[in-house]
Design goal:
The complex is a heterodimer of chains A (323) and B (422). Chain A contains 14 helices and no strands. Chain A has 323 residues and is mostly helical. Chain A has 2 domains: 66 residues, no CATH class; 224 residues, MetI-like (MetI-like fold). The two termini of chain B are 57 Å apart. Chain B has 422 residues and is mostly helical. Chain B has 3 domains: 36 residues, no CATH class; 123 residues, no CATH class; 220 residues, MetI-like (MetI-like fold, Orthogonal Bundle), CATH 1.10.3720. Chain B has 19 helices and 2 strands. In chain B, strands 1-2 form a two-stranded antiparallel sheet. Classes of the chains: A mainly alpha (323), B mainly alpha (422). At the A-B interface, helix 1, helix 5, helix 6, helix 7 and helix 9 of A face helix 2, helix 10, helix 11, helix 12 and helix 14 of B.
Chain lengths: 323, 422
């Protein structure tokens, strides 16, 4: 909103106030995220800027808390850092284990949510889809229903969702379940829970992409002799791929950031980064948390950049200029 | 109808190549298309039912179910079933006999705690009563009534007998009564005193805080969304990053940042002290209380308000405002009478979404809320950790009901398919 030439002095004052307000709100949005980055390089165990840091004294900064991420849970942290030491970090360090768990859980949950969600979105965006509104409401509800309710329900259900350890089912599914053969305290349980939470995001992004999709392209492909499979992989998929990837990234971030369900249904073997952070913040809050936070901010910046690029590409393909 | 209505008979004569009436063929083709579309959704529906609806169903069932007393006191269950209309103010000797035999059995089977806990929900203070009774039970001799009352006169309380009668059923709506701050008195269910109204008070508080957060979000989001919607594309895309980055950043990271910023030895207080606005002793307590919850949650939920507002403001033609100005309206009138009404769909969408998300929030209040910044979700979690499963489930069910009501409203007013990110 540029200031019109006929604006009165009062309107000019109001206009500049408005700009200042906007700048302050942007600051409110972004400052808390950026503040953790310098704080994580603190050489002292404080949560704020030390006088040395403010004087830009190099001694005030250090990688101490990033180092702490490697050594937590390491049986002999002070030993010489040779190959064996790093191998132990990879296999024993608490934060590295948490990162690995988070990554695998996130990956499988994303695959599950994206596959099911994309196929369903294809059906939901067809004009002849029956009960569309109702089904849509059901699919979006994991995002609306408070996570605590989902977590409570799942913790009741997962404790009962068991196979007997000596049954034939256990020999098939046992490796995915807990030692007692239950979904509770198992990787599969966490993956399934996170997949449910990611589905709304996949559905929303993919149906949004499909809303600009020209359904006659499908008929054109059919009329040119393509079978449904070819149509899907050669015509539909390349066009909706940016939306699918955005949805998948949303689903991954949802899983990567999820802590409540993990707190309720997971066991000690499913320690994830958010859970480790949650416990860290609750118990002894150390700047190591800020180091993790910084790493996560960097990851989210990269994810955001990817999604933005994908959206621009998708808009270009659809012939939409701008947003 | 007999008098061959011409159009119908004539269209019926039109047939496809294989001789079927066109109308039937079309209906069949459409039914087939509908089936095909539906088949695509079936796997996801099954998945969501299995992993989302059934667990929630389980939770609802749990909120009506508790067998702590019913399973550990078979003699009492049998007696209550045979005498549904007994007088709780003066239970007969055989009732006491059944109770003493059950107490003795509880002591052997170590189920006293379970049974006592069940009764304790509706009649507070009964766990220790049951423990004492069970320890004494095997040494009691008839007449049991006098013997048991000699152990503890509390055993004669009508409220206790009403509670045991109710607990002898596995399925009960009692947890909803408890979650509405009712308790069993000697005369039946009644509201607790003012100090005991914790649950409804917390519901009220949760809705109030959510309302405050929604209002703050709207206040902060409106100018920003307007700026984004009216700036040229290149600039607004750049500024949009400021909105989307928090959206993509881990919730725990944002909560951590607020702790670093607002705690007593944090950045904000240091800055205020350095500026001389407050003294070293006068450091503000902005964290681990209600203020912390409100500030951090407003930050977390702000993008959910900006994005719907932005998408509505984006399509408001600027010519309307100009037309209003050219017709002599002041800028304030233009805003109030022309611009604001057009943004109402965005305001409704954003506010409802933020309110819905705020009501069920758990992590932020749990981490930065301290004692007085806790919301209803945290109470559910508290009862889960204390193994008060049925009570937790009942509170969760009440929260779920209010959320579904808001969700229905959202769908009515906004439409779920209008949800978008970025």
């Amino acid at each position: 909103m540029a200031l019109p030439t006929y604006a009165s002095p009062l309107e000019r004052i109001w206009y500049y106030t408005y700009i200042v307000i906007c700048v302050l709100v942007f600051l409110f949005l972004i400052a808390p995220i950026l503040i953790v980055i310098p704080l994580s390089f603190n050489a002292e165990p404080y949560f704020t800027f030390t006088p040395k840091m403010l004087a830009f004294d190099p001694a005030g900064y250090g990688l101490r808390w990033y180092d702490a991420l490697l050594t937590l849970g390491h049986p002999n942290a002070d030993a010489v850092r040779d190959g064996a030491w790093w191998t132990t970090v990879w296999e024993r360090s608490t934060w590295v284990q948490a990162a690995k768990n988070s990554f695998w859980v996130g990956l499988w949950a994303t695959i599950l949510a994206t596959t099911l969600g994309t196929i369903a979105a294809l059906g939901l965006s067809r004009p002849e889809m029956p009960y569309r509104r109702l089904i849509m409401a059901l699919m979006i509800s994991p995002m609306i229903v408070p996570i605590i309710i989902i977590a409570v329900g799942m913790s009741f259900f997962y404790a009962k969702a068991c196979v007997a350890p000596d049954s034939a089912w256990f020999s098939v599914f046992g490796m995915f379940l807990s030692e007692k053969g239950c979904l509770a305290n198992s990787h599969l349980g966490v993956i399934v829970a996170h997949a449910v939470l990611g589905i709304p995001f996949v559905i929303i992004t993919v149906t949004a992409t499909l809303s600009g999709f020209d359904q006659s392209l499908i008929r054109a492909a059919h009329s040119l002799g393509a079978n449904p499979r070819t149509t899907f992989f050669k015509v539909i998929m390349p066009l909706i791929l940016p939306g699918v990837i955005s949805g998948a990234l949303f689903a991954f971030v949802t899983s990567f950031d999820e802590v409540v369900a993990v707190l309720f249904i997971a066991g000690p073997d499913q320690q994830t980064i958010p859970r480790q952070m949650f416990n860290g913040i609750r118990e002894a809050i150390s700047p190591a948390i800020l180091a993790v936070a910084t790493i996560l901010v960097v990851i989210s910046v990269m994810l955001l950049a990817t999604v933005e690029l994908l959206r621009r590409r998708s808009d270009r393909l659809r012939g939409v200029t701008g947003r | 109808m007999a008098e061959a209505t011409d159009p119908v008979t004539q269209t019926a004569l039109l047939t496809t190549a294989d001789g079927r009436p066109l109308k039937t063929a079309l209906a069949e083709a459409q039914a087939k298309a509908r089936r095909r579309a539906f088949l695509l959704v079936v796997p996801l529906i099954l998945f969501v039912i299995m992993t989302f609806l059934i667990p929630i169903g389980y939770m609802l069932k749990r909120s009506f179910e508790h067998d702590g007393f019913a399973s550990s006191a078979p003699a009492m269950v049998a007696w209550f079933a045979a005498n549904p209309d007994f007088d709780p103010t003066n239970p007969p000797e055989e009732a006491y006999a059944a109770l003493v035999s059950d107490l003795a059995r509880m002591q052997v089977e170590k189920t006293t705690g379970m049974a006592g806990t069940r009764i304790n929900y509706s009649v507070p203070g009964t766990i220790s009563l049951f423990k004492g009774g069970a320890r004494a039970a095997k040494n009691l001799t008839p007449p049991f009534k006098e013997a048991l009352l000699a152990v503890d006169a509390e055993w004669g309380r009508p409220a206790l007998w009403r509670g045991m009668q109710s607990a002898s059923h596995v399925y009960t709506a009692e947890f909803y009564l408890v979650a509405s701050d009712r308790k069993l008195t000697d005369d039946g269910w009644a509201r607790g005193g003012d100090k005991e109204r914790i649950y409804l008070y917390l519901f009220f508080k949760t809705f109030l805080i959510s309302g405050i957060i929604t209002f703050l979000c709207l206040l902060l989001a409106f100018p920003v969304a307007h700026l984004l919607a009216t700036l040229p594309m290149a600039k607004s895309s750049l500024l949009m990053i400021f909105v989307l980055l928090p959206f993509w950043t881990s919730l725990l990271v944002r909560t951590t940042s607020w702790i670093a910023l607002l705690q007593e030895q944090g950045v904000a207080n240091d800055l205020l002290v350095a500026l001389g606005l407050i003294t070293e002793e006068g450091r503000l307590t902005m964290m681990y209380n209600m203020t912390g919850t409100i500030v951090a949650m407003t930050h977390v939920l702000l993008p959910f308000m900006i994005l719907p507002l932005y998408s509505v403001m984006k399509v408001i033609p600027p010519s309307y405002a100009r037309a209003a100005r050219s017709l002599g309206a002041t800028s304030w009138t233009t805003f109030r009478r022309v611009y604001l009404p057009q943004t109402l769909p965005g305001i409704a969408a954003g506010s409802l979404l933020v309110f819905i998300l705020a009501v069920g929030y758990y992590i932020t209040p749990a981490l930065v809320g301290g004692a007085d910044g806790q919301l209803i979700s945290n109470l559910i979690s508290f009862h889960m950790s204390k193994s008060n499963w049925s009570l937790a489930a009942a509170i969760a069910a009440m929260l779920l009901a209010s959320i579904l009501l808001l969700y229905w409203l959202y769908d009515r007013l906004v439409g779920i398919d209008r949800l978008k990110f970025g």
